[in-house]
Automatic annotation (TrEMBL):
GO terms for cellular component: cytoplasm. PANTHER family: ADENINE PHOSPHORIBOSYLTRANSFERASE (PTHR32315), URACIL PHOSPHORIBOSYLTRANSFERASE, CHLOROPLASTIC (PTHR32315:SF4). Keywords: Allosteric enzyme, Glycosyltransferase, GTP-binding, Nucleotide-binding, Signal, Transferase. One of its GO terms (biological process) is uracil salvage. CDD domains: PRTases_typeI (cd06223). Belongs to the UPRTase family. One of its GO terms (molecular function) is GTP binding. It is an enzyme of class 2 (transferase). This is uracil phosphoribosyltransferase.
């Protein structure tokens, strides 16, 4: 269960682990392991290798939750050692397009292949100007066009101002994808990002480990977990 009476100033409906925030749907899976990995990530004493593996574990759970009602399946029959069984399985012709936002998004999707049987990964690299907090795209491995029915998972651990995620989603929209076919995974999300995403992309689903109350004047989430990229890669 997520916290009750969260940000009562915003129009939220609390629904088990689903928050409806204006047009967006924000899921905070009510699993003790989500809380556990968030606790490890938050602790400033957690050393980088442990931080990185905690982020990857949290990503695995969030991706699992995000894919729950999302995968295209097909049916068939297989021969078991004892008979013939009707089976349903993930359609390998419909891989989920995974878009990690560099650097820290790479860590969040590190275990994606152990959750999703069919994926294709396209990297996007953004750098955030420390003064203006505006993102600049420095690496774009998206193809010019994506199949219009493609499902896209966009990963960035920290949804702070929302600027980077909005820019990433706009790159995908330019390539023919409807934002309602995208799902976002993040370790920590904050109100400014969630508000902007819900206003710009109604119906977008966001899966987060936790929602924190605010940003500091450098655009970092408070209490948050610090710089997710620096703490993962010790740089
Ligand atoms: N990016 C981070 O790594 N941490 C924050 O708190 C905000 C943006």
């Amino acid at each position: 269960m997520v916290k009750k009476n969260f940000f009562p100033c915003f129009p939220l409906i609390l629904w088990n682990s689903l928050l409806r925030w204006c047009g967006s749907q924000i899921y905070v899976p009510a699993h003790p392991l989500v809380k556990h990995w968030v606790a490890v990530l938050r602790n400033e004493s957690t050393p980088p290798p442990v931080f990185k593996s905690a982020m990857a574990e949290l990503g695995r759970i969030l991706i699992y939750e995000a894919s729950r009602d999302w995968l295209v399946t097909m049916t068939g029959q297989v021969q078991t050692p004892c008979g013939v069984a009707d089976v349903e399985f993930v359609d390998p012709r419909e891989p989920i397009k995974v878009v990690p936002i560099l650097r820290a998004g790479l860590v969040l999707v590190e275990h994606v292949a152990s959750v999703l049987p069919a994926t294709q990964t396209y990297h996007l690299g953004f750098v955030r100007d420390e003064e203006t907090l505006q993102p600049t795209l420095y690496l774009n491995k998206l193809p010019e066009k994506l199949p219009e029915h493609a499902r896209v998972l966009v990963a960035d651990p920290m949804l702070a101002t929302g600027g980077t995620m909005i820019a990433a989603i706009e790159e995908l929209i330019k390539r023919g994808i409807d934002h309602r076919l995208m799902r976002v995974v993040a370790a920590v999300a904050a109100p400014p990002a969630l508000k902007k995403l819900s206003e710009k992309f109604p119906g977008l689903k966001v899966y987060a480990g936790i929602i924190d109350p605010e940003l500091n004047d450098k655009g970092y989430i408070v209490p948050g977990l610090g710089d997710a990229g620096d703490r993962s890669f010790a740089t």
